[in-house]
Design goal:
By secondary structure, this protein is an alpha/beta fold. The protein contains 23 helices and nine strands. It folds into two domains: 371 residues, no CATH class; 116 residues, D-Maltodextrin-Binding Protein, domain 2. It is 65% helix and 7% strand.
Amino acid sequence: MDFKKYLSKLDKYDYLAIIIVILAFAVRFAFYEHCLWVDEARDLEVTRNFFSTGKQILFDEVYLVHPILNYIILATSSLFFGFTTLGGTMPSILLGALTVAVVYFIGSEVFNKKVGIAASLIMLFHPLHWFYSSRALNNVPNTFFFVFAIYTFILFIKTKNNKYLYLTGLITACAILTRFASAILLIIMVIYLFLDKQTYNQLFSKFLPKKNTLIFLGILLGLGAISLMYNQISYGQMFDTAIYLDVGLSKSTLDAQPWWYYFATFHVWIRLSITILFILGVIIVFPKMDKLKFLLLLTIILTFIEISIVSVKTDRYILPILPFIALFAGYFLVALWGTIKKHKITIAYIVLIVILGAIVVPFYYEGSNMITNIGKGFCGLDKAGQWVIQNTSPEDNIFSASYMSIGFYSNRDNIRPIPNTRQELVSLIDSGGVNYIFLDGIERTQPEYLFEFLYNNSDFEVVGAVMDAQDTTRPILIMYKYNTEPTDDQNES
């Protein structure tokens, strides 16, 4: 490929988009250093075991919560950066910046390059996307594959070139293999095909799939089948049905919320300014709705319905629809600029700069503050890992609500979660299966009974503590050791 010839085809919007993507990578990389959440430490520990054993294992337990591609991505990153915060975060940093690029490409294909630039600027500093682009979680890599799959599908619709169809199959499989909820992409594409007769005829002869469709399905289902076969051979099950049913349906699960939760908090997670621009964008685009704009709107609606049905709801689950919301918000900004430009171009530029500034500047400060402040309390858990290495042996049985993080930092497989009930814990103690219990001041999954149990139990003594880095009078973790020998008081009695 002639690189100079390719560069000659780029215009000012393309160069501006390149600058925005580079800036997106730079700001995400600059803020990557953080204290690992339990979820992040869990995935890195599973990856470390996967890297060394070829199995997804959390300490001594099989762990199938996330599809296998997450661990392959993290393991690949760790080859270059080690099992460190940077090694775990780099996939999110890189793919988060590339998501900004894909948003520009979609905007250019569906609307125009000006809309692509406006939408990519919104994504550049959007606090929700920026924050999770700086964490070692699967949500941003999944969002990249999700948005990329829609982009390649759009290219197929426009060009009818089968290479884009096959690429759509590959990228859709990657999206599903980073988060099973991305299977909604298949429903989106099927519904679209029944509404777009021209594209439907390109793929089907009456109801029979054509050769190109069979290749698409072969790529998509083939990768999925390989993953399921690997799970079956390694663990005796294709996936842990109980876990997914619990996350999807249980109302008692942590973070379980009613179906209307995202409706009520939409303006909070998306941010009020973008919500208003998105609604206005949909209103003005509606009379000019074509099949590609409809595809974007269909993606938002069906994905929103899916995440609303699932019982567990957190802000990061809304990430896959954020880029499409940014596109409609960007469309309104460009339409507003064009309307004012007809009367006075100088005023049009001033209005656009003021509006974008009013969005981007607060986003920058909010996003940077979120990254530098949220989760600071977890910083002490690396010290807890060092304490375990220095003061305990690998044969000791240690129990903590933050067992994933401490296990990762200590690289020990002898740290277990706190039993859910007092009776289970007492049974473990009576059987000699407990040497240490770490009382946690941060992790919200810690059973409530544990505070009173340790406070009133003379068989446990405090042997260490990790203090909050910002408030040195506040312990975030207290180490209790079980006295297997009688205490002085017990000997006197």
